[in-house]
Amino acid sequence: MASANADRFRSHAVDLLALAPDVVLASTSQSIAAFQKATSTVPIVFAATADPVAQGFVDSLARPGGNITGFSVVPEFSINAKWLELMKQIAPAVTRVAVIRDTTAQSSLGQFSAIQAMAQSLGVEVQAMGMRDATEIERAIAAFASRSNSGLILTVSPQAFAHRALIIALAARHRLPAVYPLRVFVADGGLVSYGANAAEAYRGAATYVDRILKGEKPADLPVQSPTKFDLVINIKTAKALGLSLPTTLLASANEVIE
User: Fold this and answer.
1) Are residues 89 and 37 in the same domain?
2) pLDDT in tens, 27-69
3) CA distance 84 to 42
4) Does 191 lie in the same domain as 246?
């Protein structure tokens, strides 16, 4: 399936490049990778993309080094510790948290380490959980949920997006409070997210497209990390889990989904 999808993306990329665009705006990892394989000259701007360095899209954030640049959704690792603080706010009884991460992503270890560093002060035991494929995820979450006072934190990676629906469904099935990295997970039924504002990333990407059209080169435009973060809460999911969320937390949310 992954190979078939990659072939489809490559085919679409070739078709679009045949139209001789001045610049390409892309978002998903698969589409960026497809354009990267298809051209080394047409400028590519990405928006709301995780781990652009680890995925080989750019040489570094400060110096992209090629025809690709854009806006990332991977924040400073200090933000990741806030996910564990948020977990204790929404579910104070939680004492065990599985941090679901893609071990192949460069930022994965940094995100996990930031969460782990906060764990002792909050009286929480954290453990890493891989997500290589759907079978591994389903088996691992089922085993972890067998003990009480458990919760989940999902880190940012392409795999997180690929398995978004499954992880949200498993959290609901096993009645696990879960903290997600971006709004899209909560809009799809997840409990709560704290992360980069994707709309800001797309607006930023639009400014890069404009600058490239005016003559600037992608290699000279550093990849931008997020500066604005949103707290989003799904009330329906909270009720289904039997959680009574603090009014102060609800008041501080950027968005509450009914």
Assistant:
1) no
2) 888 899 999 999 999 999 999 787 788 789 999 999 999 999 9
3) 41
4) yes
pTM listed for this prediction:
0.83
Cα dihedral value 88, 93, 96, 97, nearest 10:
-40
Structural domain containing residue 66 = 2-73+197-227
> How many separate domains does the chain show?
2
**116, 63: one domain:** no
Considering the domain architecture, whether residues 219 and 106 belong to the same structural domain is answered as: no
Q: Check if the beta carbon of residue 194 is closer than 8 Å to that of residue 84.
A: no
Q: Enter the tokens of residue 26.
A: 């892309």
Contact (Cβ atoms closer than 8 angstroms) between residue 78 and residue 124? no
Which residues lie below 8 Å from residue 255, measured CB to CB, with a gap of 6+? 183, 230, 231, 232, 233
Question: pLDDT tens, 185-225?
Answer: 999 999 999 998 888 889 999 999 999 999 999 999 999 98
The residues that bridge with 195 in the sheet, in sequence order, are: 230
Same domain, 86 and 69: no
